[in-house]
């Protein structure tokens, strides 16, 4: 695995810490800015919505720029956004700083993922993406609790300064360790510019492919299901399970550790067994959510199952990312990463909202687990539909290869057969 991929994973640690750290700082922010906690909570929603909008928007806007230059520029904007937040004199400025940071974060995720897969062979894509996602998992284990601890002792602004410092380190890593050249389709190294990429109109054709929409739906359902439960895990532990507040960070760390392990294992499995890994992940996550709902008043069970939920759920994360790239990275290298980012954050936005509806409807915190299980179960259904689509594509590709080999002569016949074999070996035909 090239060192540049680990540099990108380190950068996602900074991004992930920023994305989730406010969840542990809302009382301090609300008090300092003289707003209610629900109003302060809108800062989290603003970040998620900025990610949904920013991923495709910035991917398109920077399409013709060298990707390395784009990554550098986005990290600079992200760092400036956190300095702006650290010195914000009022809520409005802080809100704007979160939107600016979210846009830069979304763009970095989209372009960074494209760079990561361009640096490795096709058969290592999920593993490379697992390194990037691993940075997010480590942020949940260390960055988010660390940011909350720092904010509680030195003020919430100190957490913003800390993220700005981490961003500066990530920026140095990208400047010095991410190469200017990336791997071409045939494996050769080529200068990394936007001139050789398809036009944006050509890239938009991927959205005519039913398989792409199924992959996006799977991502959104998975993210919504996990966030529907995870967003309200703390009050569930204290108000329903009966654990003290001191147990909340412990359970969050267990969940994050499980997520990190699941991401690493899933990255190795998904390259060879894409749909099998997704099936195992979604079945496990659904089962864990159901078991949590059933044993919600048994503290030992809830603590253990929360860690297993992180492991089972995040087995799928590398595969969900790689699936989109397998379908779209050749014909839509710019929009592939943006599509993944937007789909995940659409789910991240919808999940807490749906959980809030369940709680507001009087069903209680335990029903966030039931609702999450239903959503992840929906992802299992769309995965089955994806597998069926991929199987049909392989049949068509094999038939085309046989026809090409039998009906053409010389080099033309050989090329047709080779194209079919290539489509079949990847597990997916090119987008139709």
Provide structural commentary.
The model is unreliable at 184-193 and 408-432 (pLDDT under 50). The chain is built from 17 helices and two strands. The chain is 80% helix and 1% strand. It is an all-alpha fold and 432 residues long. The chain has helices at 3-21, 26-33, 37-61, 67-86, 91-118, 125-154, 156-177, 200-203, 210-230, 233-241, 247-270, 274-294, 299-314, 317-328, 333-360, 366-407, 410-425; strands at residues 181-183, 189-191. The protein is globular and about 60 Å long. α4 runs antiparallel to α5 (91-118), α9 (210-230) runs antiparallel to α16 and α11 packs parallel to α14 (317-328). The chain has a two-stranded antiparallel ribbon with strand order 1-2. The two termini are 31 Å apart. A hairpin with a 5-residue loop joins β1 (181-183) and β2 (189-191).
Structure characteristics:
432 residues, mainly alpha, two-stranded antiparallel sheet, 17 helices, 2 strands, globular
